[in-house]
């Protein structure tokens, strides 16, 4: 009883008018005392509903009770049994829709959920700072070589799990940096690079080799990998292909995809110490309402935009972005232009975008996604001033790998078709993460990596 | 990290490199390019693979020094390492026996033209190569082109070498003289635009290799997009070669200027910092 009267811990944050001018992490983490108290709120339910809300079924009560008795390193070890990247997931998981939505506090008590995500982050950070990070035990090498395409969360978690099982794993990454979207997409004010690097270091410690600047299907083909003795391939190549709206003026200077904008800044260091340029403007419009749009708009604010705007065709309720992100964006001075949809961009003599025409929308009946669909209000068109537009309306799978391996079955959306075991139409090739799901989440990609590792292990053991 | 095995100057601003890259040397075909990044904070810039040597495991690049990133690359020496190099990227050139092929290159386009000239010759075509430059000291790769062409015509704006005049004048002379089955052009967007307008008049199918601004080179960002036949295409994965008669060269030219001011400022800063050391 007394546990339930404790109020949920509050996350310390950098002040909005300071953080919107730098690249520091916004969420500052919990102190030990706060974590101990928050851990106390967990009721250690005999039938923990929270765990079934987590896509990888982390043993939530077990890690939280370890925190409560101040055995933080043990809590971290519990997390690592299931998650290859706990410090990452504790930060970017949509907790409010997953584990925390299924916590008994939310479900039965009508109170704020146990802060599972904050505690997860706390335990992982504590372990990293302690310098006593435990390397999961690996079985002795079994002599079987496995190749992985892509070093995003799917590829990394697959690699870690196969290494644990004694396989010799090589990850091939097309870019010059390791981490996939975690590095080139999600900004440092939400997920600092040294945190990703520390988790990558753990995976390397387990004997996983990572080769950057190597594109499977271009630099090296699947056939060559087979010749080199690789017995299995896991494709975790993500959904990196940006979508555009195909409206007039979309190729003007200053109109770009969120992938381009975020890659220039996060991967290439544009606007900081990098040689890569980026356009920054006074009036920056981001088209879209997902996590990527929020990351882009908050980045634009940090690059000095006077007006950084979200332009979204539905209302705030239908936005797919995390609630925390929308809240942070608003605090930082981001403007929200909901129920507006761009129909045309106009430029100046040099071709730089100058204005955009917006069609005003109203909400109609729910559509296939269950959200109320946007409907045009006839004749309601307005023009606003912009000098930079970032199109963030989603991504499709990159066709590079699927098209380079004949025999892989691809869906009409360009995703790889897999069985329940994540096996593709070629038995020795498994796939997971965004290349299978389209744009999804870090934790789902990680979960796929784990599941595919278990399934491929079984397949190889019975077929090799 | 890729080691530089050999460096030579083709002119004061054009450098030839032979770089260790065994996998790329194996996999590459004419028309493919690589992305190169110098230093941890370097920019990723696309460069055509000019040649490869599978026994040595090396590829050759011909780099024209135009701004900060190409200057940083050109400043490297034999034995130095290129921080990041990835490829081969893009679609390979469609090579077949057309009959007579006219290859027209100018400015930065001459280096990327060389492997195409070579492959067209190897496929049994009669190859006529036209190289255009502002003046004599900017003419590059003449010898290499000679070795792989039936005829090389040099055009200079100021008449200091070869014939005086712009590239289209040289092309038109050939078109009036004999039947040409295919034209390939690589160079500045404006040049390709006028080449395409001319060959269209003569009904000669024409391929242009486009050099748009790139970041990843794998289809991930869309920085390289161009309009071809009214549709948006990504040069790094759908190209770099397209039907020149369908390309919107004005839009391409405009987009190449996206970062002009920032690039010029950066180059000035780079020049002051390197001369003061
Ligand atoms: C800006 C942004 C913000 C996001 N925010 C969140 C969030 O807050 N929470 C959340 O859960 N999810 C978020 N997501 C989604 C999440 O990042 C992705 O779902 C997840 O990263 C998918 O993982 P993946 O391993 O499948 O692919 P990716 O992370 O995309 O990694 C794929 C990797 O494969 C490489 N690759 C591709 N082709 C080849 C090839 N042929 N050879 C070699 N390598 C190749 C790519 O370069 C890349 O590094 C966000 C996404 C973006 C873009
Ligand atoms: C497929 C392809 C093949 C190419 N092959 C060659 C080659 O073999 N030899 C060669 O010398 N050059 C080649 N280029 C051009 C070369 O990439 C540019 O000259 C170089 O990127 C300029 O960078 P910079 O920093 O030195 O100059 P900057 O001063 O930054 O730029 C000069 C101009 O180059 C263009 N440019 C700038 N950044 C990029 C970029 N990231 N990608 C592409 N263009 C850019 C812009 O139009 C800019 O105005 C090729 C380009 C493409 C797309
Ligand atoms: S991984 Fe994500 S969903 Fe699972 S417990 Fe952690 S924060 Fe919750
Ligand atoms: S449901 Fe909530 S209270 Fe119960 S074990 Fe899970 S986190 Fe603890
Ligand atoms: S360079 Fe990024 S998509 Fe072509
Ligand atoms: Mg540059």
From TrEMBL, chain B:
FAD-binding FR-type domain segment(s): 1-95
Cofactor: FAD; [2Fe-2S] cluster
Residues annotated for FAD binding in this entry: 62-64
Record organism: Microbacter margulisiae
Protein name, entry field: Ferredoxin--NADP+ reductase
SUPFAM superfamilies: Ferredoxin reductase-like, C-terminal NADP-linked domain (SSF52343), Riboflavin synthase domain-like (SSF63380)
Cofactor, free-text remark: Binds 1 FAD per subunit.
Keywords linked to the UniProt accession: 2Fe-2S, FAD, Flavoprotein, Iron, Iron-sulfur, Metal-binding, Oxidoreductase
Residues that, per the record, bind [2Fe-2S] cluster: 221, 224, 236
Superkingdom: Bacteria
């Amino acid at each position: 009883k007394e546990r339930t009267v404790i109020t949920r811990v509050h996350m310390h944050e950098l002040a909005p008018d300071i953080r919107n001018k730098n690249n520091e992490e916004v969420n500052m983490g919990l102190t030990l005392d706060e974590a101990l108290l928050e851990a106390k709120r967990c009721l250690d339910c005999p039938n923990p509903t929270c765990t079934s809300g987590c896509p990888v079924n982390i043993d939530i009560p077990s890690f939280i009770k370890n925190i409560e008795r101040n055995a933080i390193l043990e809590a971290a070890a519990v997390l690592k049994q299931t998650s290859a990247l706990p410090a990452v997931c504790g930060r970017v998981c949509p907790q409010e829709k997953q584990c925390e939505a299924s916590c008994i506090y939310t479900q039965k008590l009508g109170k704020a959920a146990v802060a599972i995500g904050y505690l997860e982050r706390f335990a992982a950070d504590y372990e990293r700072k302690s310098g006593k990070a435990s390397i999961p035990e690996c079985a002795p090498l079994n002599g079987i070589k496995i190749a992985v395409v892509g070093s995003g969360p799917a590829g990394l978690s697959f690699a870690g799990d196969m290494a644990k099982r004694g396989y010799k794993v090589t990850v091939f990454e097309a870019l010059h940096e390791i981490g996939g979207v975690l590095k080139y997409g999600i900004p440092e004010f939400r997920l600092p690079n040294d945190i990703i690097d520390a988790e990558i270091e753990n995976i390397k410690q387990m004997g996983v080799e990572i080769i950057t600047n190597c594109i499977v299907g271009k630099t090296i083909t699947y056939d060559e990998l087979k010749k080199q003795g690789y017995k299995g391939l896991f494709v975790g190549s993500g959904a990196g292909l940006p979508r555009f709206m195909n409206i007039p003026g979309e190729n003007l200077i200053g109109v770009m995809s969120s992938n381009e904008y975020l890659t220039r800044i996060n991967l290439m260091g544009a606007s900081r110490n990098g040689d890569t340029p980026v356009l920054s403007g006074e009036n920056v419009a981001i088209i879209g309402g997902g996590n990527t749009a929020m990351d882009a708009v908050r980045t634009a604010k940090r690059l000095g935009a006077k007006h950084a705007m979200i332009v979204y065709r539905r209302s705030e309720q239908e936005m797919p972005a995390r609630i925390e992100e929308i809240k942070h964006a608003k605090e930082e001075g981001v403007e929200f232009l909901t129920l507006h949809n761009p129909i045309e961009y106009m430029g100046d003599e040099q071709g730089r975008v100058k204005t955009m025409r917006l069609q005003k929308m109203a909400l109609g009946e729910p559509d296939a996604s269950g959200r109320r669909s946007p409907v045009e209000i006839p004749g309601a068109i307005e023009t606003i001033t912009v000098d930079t537009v970032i199109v963030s309306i989603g991504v499709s799978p990159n066709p590079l790998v699927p098209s380079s391996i004949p025999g892989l079955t691809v869906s009409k959306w360009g995703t790889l078709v897999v069985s329940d075991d994540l096996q593709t139409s070629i038995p020795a090739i498994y796939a997971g993460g965004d290349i299978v799901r389209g744009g999804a989440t870090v934790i789902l990609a990680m979960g796929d990596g784990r599941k595919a590792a278990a399934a491929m292990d079984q397949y190889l053991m019975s077929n090799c | 990290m890729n080691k530089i095995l050999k460096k030579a100057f083709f002119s004061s601003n054009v450098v030839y490199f032979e770089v260790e890259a065994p996998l790329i040397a194996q996999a590459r075909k004419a028309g493919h390019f690589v992305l190169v990044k110098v230093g941890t904070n370097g920019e990723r810039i696309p460069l055509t693979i000019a040649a490869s040597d599978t026994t040595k495991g090396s590829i050759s690049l011909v780099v024209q020094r135009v701004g900060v990133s190409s200057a940083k690359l050109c400043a490297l020496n034999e034995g130095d390492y290129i921080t990041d190099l990835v490829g081969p990227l893009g679609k390979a050139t469609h090579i077949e026996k057309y009959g007579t092929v006219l290859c027209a290159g100018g400015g930065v386009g001459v280096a990327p033209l060389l492997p195409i000239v070579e492959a067209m010759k190897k496929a049994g075509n009669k190859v006529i190569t036209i190289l255009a430059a502002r003046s004599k000291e900017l003419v590059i790769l003449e010898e290499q082109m000679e070795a792989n062409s039936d005829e090389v015509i040099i055009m200079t704006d100021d008449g200091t070498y070869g014939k005086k005049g712009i590239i289209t004048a040289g092309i038109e002379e050939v078109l009036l003289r004999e039947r040409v089955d295919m034209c390939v052009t690589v160079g500045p967007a404006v040049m390709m635009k006028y080449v395409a307008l001319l060959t269209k008049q003569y009904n000669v199918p024409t391929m242009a290799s486009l050099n748009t601004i790139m970041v990843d080179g794998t289809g991930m960002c869309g920085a390289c997009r161009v309009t071809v036949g009214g549709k948006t295409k990504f040069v790094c994965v759908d190209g770099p070669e397209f039907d020149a008669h369908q390309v919107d060269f004005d839009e391409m030219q405009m987009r190449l200027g996206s970062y002009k001011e920032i690039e010029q400022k950066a180059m000035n800063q780079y020049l002051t910092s390197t001369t003061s050391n």
